[in-house]
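One-letter codes give the sequence; the fold follows as tokens. An example follows:
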Amino acid sequence: MISLHAHIEKFTLLTTRFLFSNVILNKAAQEDIP
């Protein structure tokens, strides 16, 4: 049985990575505009 703490840690890591890549994409899109 997976411990709840490990499950939450995994979820948090995935969410952080998702948000981080979103920020990078937004920044790149903004810098693309002259």
About this structure: Helices lie at 4-32. The mean pLDDT is 89. The chain is about 85% helix and 0% strand. The CA atoms of residues 24 and 30 lie 10 Å apart.
